[in-house]
């Protein structure tokens, strides 16, 4: 056997693996922008991305096998696993070893994507850029084909740099910046006619009872393509056939890119949105905006979930994600009666004795103080439910459990909006218009006279859909979106309920 055979194997495997890895990065950037067509990408484009990545692993294995078998470079398993342990070009080899470790992390999280929080996968996957740079440096410094590598590397670096900048400047716009759970029809307003055409077209795939007075509605993209990705805590704005827009928490599985599931509580004396949602039929066309998320799941060693009524919809995906991540968690779920509590079977199957159901007609109201006392110090407490429950929780944590980290989300306004006797002006910087906001009209109402399609949903200050960027002046925050520690912010306003404490407020419209 030719003594150089293994060296040839190592060279061919290494160069081919690097080319395929580079192609994977370039293709991934193409898929993540609109270069290959409208969003979302077709499944076959993603399949090609995965195929290139898998094929590069095959040649990488050939490269490593050739290095171990070749007697000249004298590289063994120890030198492949740990950087700076090789006597052959130690620095050059180290870049390849570090790139190999990164690749292992990326591939592992990709295989476990359905079992781990999406955010974790996304962060790890972003290190592919570092992997590309390290593998390119390794190819330039460790091998004997420098002239061949140099020209290819320059072309690939230019392509990756261009596509990265393109993605940042004109890539896919994500709508996960703001959100709220509204699964009740408390005080929403009806958008103007024609709103059904806005957003992503979807069709109703299933409508089934989830509890007395609650239906679970499953939606799929009208064109059959994957729906935009979401994370636990996110919601969508559902545009109903009448044109009404209502925010609903997503309560399905984030890994299921073909279905959105929401839970809707029927509120007969509401403004009609929930009643209309209960009357949806399979195959009916709707539209959704989002997803948006202002209730993200943060990392913690222990979680306590407290759900009241339909607030369970925001917390159910969180419980699944926490369990999949192997974290400690408990849930307390209260409702008026056992038959009115949605998704109880799913919760019991998911958590067993970690889940405590508290039907009010059987055992009374939730004992919030006991639930908080049982949580370990530093635990993350996530709560969604009626306003009295959330107000009591906030008071209890502030006074008796300051070592717990409370995160709340509302599906109704926490208090009546205080009237003001002061008029102010709003300056729309993009159009140059300056409008007067009388004492008896909301800022959003006035803005709509100039910008009729200004986004909104709940119009009660709890969903965050109407968020505007403030460019000048001092907002008077009256919403429940901003937590207590951020109510002095001067860069954002929710105009459906908030006003201005300065004579003129300038916004990015």
Can you tell me about this structure?
- The protein has 509 residues and is an alpha/beta fold.
- The protein is built from 14 helices and 18 strands.
- The protein has helices spanning 5-31, 43-69, 77-81, 90-111, 118-126, 128-142, 146-170, 273-278, 312-324, 344-351, 360-363, 368-373, 387-400, 443-450; strands at 200-211, 214-221, 235-239, 245-249, 260-265, 285-292, 302-308, 328-335, 355-359, 380-385, 405-410, 424-428, 433-437, 468-472, 475-476, 492-493, 499-500, 504-507.
- The strands form four sheets. The protein has a six-stranded antiparallel β-sheet with strand order 4-3-6-1-2-5. A five-stranded parallel β-sheet has the order 9-8-7-10-11, sandwiched between helices. It has a five-stranded mixed β-sheet with strand order 13-12-18-14-16, covered by helices on one side.
- The model is unreliable at 34-42, 170-197 and 415-420 (pLDDT under 50).
